[in-house]
Every structure is written in C-alpha cells, then in structure tokens.
Amino acid sequence: MIDLIFDICVTMLYDLADLTGMTYRQINVLIFCFLWPIFTLYLVIIVRWQKAKIKKLEQQIQGGLRIPNSDSRP
Description:
By secondary structure, the protein is mainly alpha-helical. It contains 2 helices and no strands.
C-alpha cells in the first residue's frame, strides 16, 4: 500500500514537472524545501493566534460569571 501511494506521488511530481517545464528535482525542492515549511509555519501561527483568542474569551467568560463568595452573604 505504501509503495502504491509513493508511486502515485512520484508520478504526480513528474506530471507537474512536465506541466511547468521544471524538473522532478526542482519540483521536489520547491514543495519540500519552500512550500511545505511556509505552510507549516503558517499553521503554527494560526494555532498560536487561536489559542490566544480562546484564552482571552475564557478570561472574559470567567470575569463575567464570577460567583459571589458564600462567606459574603448577609
């Protein structure tokens, strides 16, 4: 199964190289040395931004739903 997936991916890279006029090696370098790391960095930034947003929302929720201390009842 892994061999089949690998063969399909290699064939796709060769086809993409033919379509763009680039070589297999150039397409490989473009994808795995430039596009993949840029995409990964983008996803890391999105995850951190989302975590910060969630934390801020949780703080707002906790601030708005403060339960009075039971010791302060009259």
